[in-house]
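Duplicate of #3305? Posting structure anyway:
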């Protein structure tokens, strides 16, 4: 339960920042086998893997219209109202991110354009299992709709009864997703990447998942399909200076620990007294949670780092590069200005991570495992590709001819130079 490390030297930080999911040597091998089976056997592999992994038959891979209508009936009015309000906030924030066409005359007669073009077919992966995340449907489908992606498909695992979670189906329909498939894990990612008789091949895959899903996305991104980012098991770091109630910090840690046994949470604080106060609160609140078993397994892989120096706490946060970073300190915006690596930052004691998970408007699909150093979370740009165009007039080509020919010939590419010389000779 929250292993405590007092003022660890910097040479130990790399080990303290290690994620538990990165240490399983068998995952890649299992995922590679799943990918190969789906690539070679298509729907037959999907049905067989459902029996082997999920322990249930997969009679129909695609959700039917009747199942969607049934799901709408099963969702409570209160949840429907919450979905509608969260959707408005998410839409408002992502609408503001619309990319604009860039048009520049770089020289007389030379026009260069960058044009945002929506990705043609996107695949959304929605985790299921012990906590079907219908909120993730909003996070992925709303920006796809704003971007104008013409074709959106969604994969999510069904429960033991063979039905997809009602809230997931309702939210997908609410966001305009037309096709939903009862697929989870690496096999779902493979189906969207390769395409099968039933599941269409997509251009880009979005969505978080466990280490199997993350590994599948990373392997397939090497040459088969684009992905949003590596996004595996959930994680949060709470940085506190002791000024925030210990109950707040504990609640934030537990909000991510309850995602699953492979989640990781980190507390960074200035002294052992603060660490102990939070630890006591974590234990008290854990006993009251319905998902206590998952929480305790996650806490066994989690840590409390005591660093007396304030700059060390900032540096450690940047070294860990958390998916979610909560700054529960007296002057949070001053600290936020020094954060360079985090998926999403929650500023101040009254900004719980769950606000971003559901309703503030920011996207909760974020890079994990330290990838926040080089990846952004999902945003509207994620659903566009930027295509460049250029047009040269005869005057423009004359203007650039010396530069083009000189550089092409210096690189030994005479045909490049000739493409200019031949045009100028025909004026």
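Output from current build:
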């Amino acid at each position: 339960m929250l292993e405590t490390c007092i003022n660890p030297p910097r040479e130990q930080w790399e080990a303290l920042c290690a994620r538990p999911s990165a240490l399983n040597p068998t995952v890649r091998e299992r995922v590679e086998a799943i990918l190969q089976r789906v690539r070679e056997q298509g729907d037959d592999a999907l049905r067989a893997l459902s029996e082997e992994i999920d322990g249930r038959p997969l009679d129909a891979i695609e959700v039917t219209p009747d199942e969607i209508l049934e799901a709408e009936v099963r969702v409570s009015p209160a949840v429907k109202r919450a979905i509608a309000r969260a959707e408005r906030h998410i839409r408002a924030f992502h609408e503001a991110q619309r990319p604009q066409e860039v048009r520049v005359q770089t020289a007389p007669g030379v026009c260069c354009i960058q044009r945002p073009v929506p990705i043609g077919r996107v695949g959304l992966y929605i985790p299921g299992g012990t906590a079907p995340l219908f909120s993730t449907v909003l996070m992925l489908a709303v920006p796809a709709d704003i971007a104008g992606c013409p074709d959106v498909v969604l994969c999510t695992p069904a429960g033991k009864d063979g039905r997809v979670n009602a809230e997931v189906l309702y939210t997908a329909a609410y966001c305009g997703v037309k096709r939903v498939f009862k697929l989870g894990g690496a096999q779902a990612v493979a189906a969207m990447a390769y395409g099968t008789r039933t599941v269409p091949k997509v251009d880009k895959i979005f969505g978080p998942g466990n280490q199997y899903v993350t590994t599948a996305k990373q392997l397939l991104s090497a040459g088969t399909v684009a992905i949003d980012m590596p996004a595996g098991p959930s994680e949060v770091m709470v940085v506190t200076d002791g000024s925030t109630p210990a109950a707040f910090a504990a609640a934030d840690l537990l909000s991510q620990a309850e995602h699953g046994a492979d989640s990781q949470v980190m507390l960074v604080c200035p002294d052992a007294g603060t660490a102990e106060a939070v630890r006591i609160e974590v234990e008290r609140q854990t006993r009251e949670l319905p998902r206590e078993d998952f929480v305790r397994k996650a806490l066994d892989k989690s840590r409390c780092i005591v660093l007396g120096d304030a700059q060390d706490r900032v540096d450690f946060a940047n070294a860990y590069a958390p998916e979610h970073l909560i700054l529960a300190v007296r002057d949070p915006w001053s600290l936020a200005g020094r954060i360079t690596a985090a998926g999403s930052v929650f500023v101040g004691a009254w900004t719980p991570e769950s606000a971003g998970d559901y309703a503030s408007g920011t996207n909760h699909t974020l890079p994990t495992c330290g990838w926040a150093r080089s990846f952004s979370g999902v945003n509207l740009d994620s659903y566009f590709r930027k295509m460049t165009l250029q047009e040269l007039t005869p005057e423009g080509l004359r203007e650039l001819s010396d530069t083009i020919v000189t550089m092409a010939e210096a690189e030994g590419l005479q045909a490049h130079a000739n493409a200019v010389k031949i045009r100028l000779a025909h004026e």
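Confirmed duplicate; merging threads. The mean pLDDT is 95. Residues 77-95 form the longest helix (19 residues).
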